[in-house]
């Protein structure tokens, strides 16, 4: 219970730090240092993916070779050391960047102060008033999925005889592709712009996510929805859920050699791995679109709501898994995940169409100043007419 409590507080603090640094600070720093925002976002994503490249294989080796107590202690020590290192870097960065210590626009009146209070109270409304909300909300839908390298997919593989080390290889392969996507983001964005980068990334992701969806329909898959419905009553289902929560199953599954793992399961993990390239090509592109279109004084409120939606869909996914903790239904959850990923893609398609489709203009997502000029046109026209009238007199 204490472990869950401490992990929850740690997660909250981590999310606050991540929002501040990766969504707001990077914009200020890139402007102060006169570095392209694409390059900064790409470097941050590359560092994140690099850390995920080696650790999965190392963790898999530790889990297969040492008791859980030793592995747990090692992870705690690593996290504590990395926390000290990260805090030192952030503090030094803050002290050496003057632009981080002051806002671009200062509050000059009570009206502006009331406006900021309204923003704090109506962050969700503010979020949906942004021109880029469809792109951001489409990204949040990608969290409503079991098709990630978390404990759900790992448990699915282990139930089919995959060892932790074998799963770790797939995780590292997926992280490598994610690293390539993060590094390639700045080059793709510089060539075709952010909107087309999002399209390329999400099309790639959907192709291989749907490959995982097809995998659960192939022979060798344990998906059996009709069998579950015919052999399960409401009372037996609720009792199974309660038992799973009260007495979680052991993680000591029987493993088989690599060449004896079902092709369906292997294809499932291949699809997840290959999809990482598209995800980490589109993710920084969508984030940068929001960074460039959301005003500075609204940026933290908007990205807080963005993170809230991400966590909401992630929690909803976890609740559904808790209510349906059956291997025979995991394929159904996989197909549902494919549907949510596709919906997120379609929202970005609609946003792209709304901004305008162009193969030359790389800034189609930016708010058009022409709208403000058009709103002032009647006043200017009236002023010109009055001036002409006086000249004629």
Distance between the termini: 86 Å
Major pleated sheet? none
Strand content: under 5%
Give the name of the CATH superfamily of the domain at 36-65 and 126-247 and 255-367.
Answer: MFS general substrate transporter like domains
The helix content is over 70%
Number of helices: 15
Rg value: 25 Å
CATH class of the domain at 36-65 and 126-247 and 255-367: Mainly Alpha
Structural class: mainly alpha
Low-confidence stretches: 105-115, 370-393
General form: globular
Which whole number gives the mean pLDDT? 79
| Number of separate strands | 0
Family: Belongs to the ferroportin (FP) (TC 2.A.100) family. SLC40A subfamily.
InterPro entries: Ferroportin-1, MFS_trans_sf
GO molecular function: iron ion transmembrane transporter activity
Membrane topology: Multi-pass membrane protein
Describe the structure.
This protein is mainly α. It contains 15 helices and no strands. Residues about 105-115 and about 370-393 have low confidence and may be disordered. Pfam families: FPN1 (PF06963).
């Amino acid at each position: 219970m204490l472990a869950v409590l401490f992990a929850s507080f740690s997660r909250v603090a981590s999310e606050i730090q991540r929002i501040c640094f990766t969504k707001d600070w990077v914009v200020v720093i890139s402007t102060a240092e006169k570095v392209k925002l694409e390059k900064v976002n790409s470097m941050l994503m590359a560092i994140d993916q690099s850390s995920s490249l080696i650790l999965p294989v190392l963790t898999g080796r530790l889990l297969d070779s040492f008791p859980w107590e030793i592995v747990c202690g090692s992870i705690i020590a690593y996290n504590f050391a990395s926390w000290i290192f990260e805090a030192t870097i952030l503090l030094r960065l803050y002290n050496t960047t003057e632009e981080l210590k002051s806002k671009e626009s200062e509050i000059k009146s009570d009206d502006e102060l009331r406006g900021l209070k309204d923003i704090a109270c109506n962050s969700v409304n503010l979020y949906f008033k942004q021109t880029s909300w469809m792109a951001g909300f489409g990204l949040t839908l990608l969290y409503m999925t079991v098709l990630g390298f978390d404990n759900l997919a790992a448990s699915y593989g282990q139930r089919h005889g995959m060892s932790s080390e074998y799963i770790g290889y797939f995780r590292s392969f997926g992280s490598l592709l994610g690293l390539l996507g993060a590094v390639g983001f700045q080059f793709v964005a510089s060539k075709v712009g952010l909107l087309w980068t999002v399209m390329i990334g999400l099309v790639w992701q959907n192709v291989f996510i749907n490959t995982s969806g097809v995998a659960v329909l192939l022979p060798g898959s344990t998906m059996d929805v009709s069998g579950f419905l015919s052999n399960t009553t409401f009372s037996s289902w609720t009792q199974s859920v309660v038992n799973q929560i009260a007495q979680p199953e052991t993680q000591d599954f029987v493993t088989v050699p690599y060449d004896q793992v079902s092709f369906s399961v292997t294809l499932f993990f291949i699809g997840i791995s290959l999809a990482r390239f598209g995800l980490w090509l589109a993710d920084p592109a969508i984030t940068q679109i929001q960074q460039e279109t959301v005003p500075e004084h609204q940026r933290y409120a908007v990205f807080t709501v963005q993170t809230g939606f991400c966590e909401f869909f992630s929690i909803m996914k976890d609740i559904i898994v808790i209510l349906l903790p059956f291997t025979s239904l995991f394929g159904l959850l996989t197909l549902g995940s494919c549907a949510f990923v596709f919906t997120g893609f379609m929202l970005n398609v609609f946003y792209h169409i709304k901004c305008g489709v162009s193969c030359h203009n790389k800034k189609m997502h930016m708010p058009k100043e022409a709208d403000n000029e058009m709103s002032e046109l009647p006043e200017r026209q009236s002023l010109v007419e009055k001036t002409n009238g006086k000249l004629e007199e």
